[in-house]
Queue: 4 jobs
Job 1
Amino acid sequence: MAIVNQRPADEHAVSPGTDPGHAENAGEARDAAAGETWVALLHRPGPAAPQDASLFADPRFGAHVQFLSRMREAGYLMAAGPLTDVPGEGMAILRLPGEGQFETAVRLATEDDPSVACGFFTVAVRPWRVILQASPAQPAQPAP
């Protein structure tokens, strides 16, 4: 079972043009992802997931890792891993070449990942607009 989730804009969120401190108002925002489609895949245990055993020991988790490996080999996978606050949940960030590739991302996440197709995981596919992005040559600095 897959969940495709495009949430409406939060009615309490400040929209561009209304917040004087917003980067677009300051003329600083550059759409770092122009010509690309970015999505967040939010995975949760599905109805077919074991209730009393480790997800990681299940062979269907291996199918999920193989899907992520295929996304990496295609150049789409930017990052993936478990969320540490809720056991069994995880997130992956995909970047697809070309604008307007959301439906392709949905198909990949829901049909090409056997662990989602069989109900081991559910996935919420969320569009993501990237405004700032680290340079690949820029090493991470220790937190102050």
Job 2
Amino acid sequence: MDVEHLAPRIKELRTQIDELERKRLDLVESIRDARVQLLEASIVKAYVDDLKALLSRGSIVEQKSFPRSFVKRIEVNLPQVAIDYTIPLETKKVEPLTREVLPFVFSGSPGRTRTCNLVVNSHPLLPVELPGKDNHF
């Protein structure tokens, strides 16, 4: 290939790299400026009541395993208690791809080995012939 054929593609890729770098810097800056909004006590109480009602309907095993799925550690230093936990995040529906990432290319005919000639096949490597859709060659 000549350089003159590659030059437009290289220029296009450099433009994409620059654009992605700008987006990355914008995201880093927005994360740095992000602030955590504290919840009001009434909202937390509503969540606690909802969780209490949910757990009351389950078996003792379910009641114990559910909090263990997100509570990582509880540290008690009276009169304070610290709880390390993770909050399940809202998941967004992912749009399906409109094109394949890698195309699938099939070689040969379906139901047959790549080398179907019994004389050519290596008998020590494959002592038993696997049947395909058509057993005649």
Job 3
Amino acid sequence: MIENALAPFDAARKALAACVSIDVAKDIRDRSERLKVYARQVKDTGLMADATEIRLRSERRLGELLIAAKDAGQMGEGRPINGRGDRPFSRVTLQEAGVTKDLSSKAQKRAKMADDEFENFIGIERGKIIGGAAKPINGARSVMASRKEDADSLDYFPTPPWASRALLEIVLPHIGVDPCQLGTVWEPGCGEGHISGVLAEYGNRVIASDIASYDKGGRFPPGWEATSDFLENPPMRPNGAPQGLWADWIITNPPFDDKALAFALRALELARAGVALFVRQQWLEGVGRYEALFGDNPPTIYAQFSERVPLCKGRWDPDGSTATAYCWLVWRKGAPRLPTFWIPPGQREALTRLGDKGRFLAHPVREPMPGGTYGRILADAQPDEPASASDNWARLVAAYETPAEQDFVWSDAAVELLKAGFALESTGGAIAEVLGTTRGAVMAKASRLNLTDPARQGARTDLQQTKGAS
């Protein structure tokens, strides 16, 4: 019933009239918001007015059910109590019911309105929309801050890898989330894999999809599962996924304009643990987004970049610049809202890897090497057997095609060898032999690698000491 509650309009009204569950009333309200977003996209004011009416009526019904639950002692603040006597149901809190305090207050106000007053209110709101009073207000806008795409555009603006690492290494730890323990992560607008390629570096299961396929020569973006429209019902289900909600986190750079709001609402519906969206700072503005999203469901944290994050249409430009401000919005389900957080300056330099050009300028993005980047490929190389290391490096380099991609391999991997306890005296020479360069050049490249975690910082120290002794 609920899958079709908003189409047609009469069916939604009948569903609300028969509704006796807080969950169902809230679900119909949430679906009306998605219908309103779609109506805006297709510029159907009649459908937009219908969606608004359904939202208001569902809020009123939700308010009636909340009041009845309170009167029956089934809902309140604090810990639930066991049912007894004339209270056969356990008491639940608003949070447990999935209803924010703002939505509860709004819904109960609507429920307390007299019938004629409420119907008059509905008529006024419909008139605003159909008469044009609810059209978006456009003021002076920065040209670079107002990214606009044609209706048939795929809206492909790749996210720089360092900006995704800022989410994983700075923002998520700040809210108590281990980026290496996210579970199954879905990137539903993956493009060529600029976000999914970073997610794959942290050991989680990554599922990537998009409305179009960006494969080339039989090679797909990191984590690729299937071509899929994220806003369709039912949602995509990867092979082997359990029934019900299967994605722990949904992390993406959503399309711009109204599709971004639809993406946000859909992601919050489908993710079990949390959602992270990379958006323009300007996207936080707007009455429509407040009413549909932020008013009732603000993010756990708003993380603003202190430095600019340059995006280019159809490609990543490592040397690009921009006048647009970007941020990460993160919802961690069940977590309290936290104060605004600023991502410190300097992350573009600190979180850019020497190998990024080789991986992220490829079409599509190349997968990170498995096993802590290089561990599995180098597992059988012994410190006292340079030939063994040389064989491994020959196989590794052969898998990459361009000098830039090979640069990714040997600059990053010398440090991985140090972490694994290999001696640079032997392995540095083996790498140099395979690549036709010198051991000093290998070590110089490796010494410029950005190392953020303690193990890598230790590796950098070891590398510098070894370099100084050579």
Job 4
Amino acid sequence: MYKNIPQIKCTLTTGTQRRKIMNKLYVFFLCGMFCTVTMIVQAQTTIPGTNLTWSISGGTLTINGTGGIPNFAATGAPWYNERASITAVVIGEGVASIGENAFRDCGIASLTIPNGVTSIGKHAFEWNQLNSVTIPDSVTSLGIMHFAKIR
């Protein structure tokens, strides 16, 4: 009746073999996740059109290099999609200015602006959770609503 149907040999693994296979898959998965997270968190990215780089590690956004942080649209900063994980900002000594909307709607609780920054654009720190801010004497220009709507 079933003469023309090919025979398929099926081998079942034992419980021990199955566990070994699952353990290897689990370790492989964890290693892949760790490497991905490490690359995302530690990557430095250039701010387009500038000599500045930014990176996020442990909730701290760090801006380094020379020149000014440019103006951005309300949701245009390159780190905007990471804003929920940002709790602090470190601005390097070579940064000369902070543009409009640069850190808008992040979760920044503390901020130190280095000596050498001369201007802060409008809405630069709007919608944050700032508890303390240190502004050096070098800042001579502040845009409107630069610290507005602090939560």
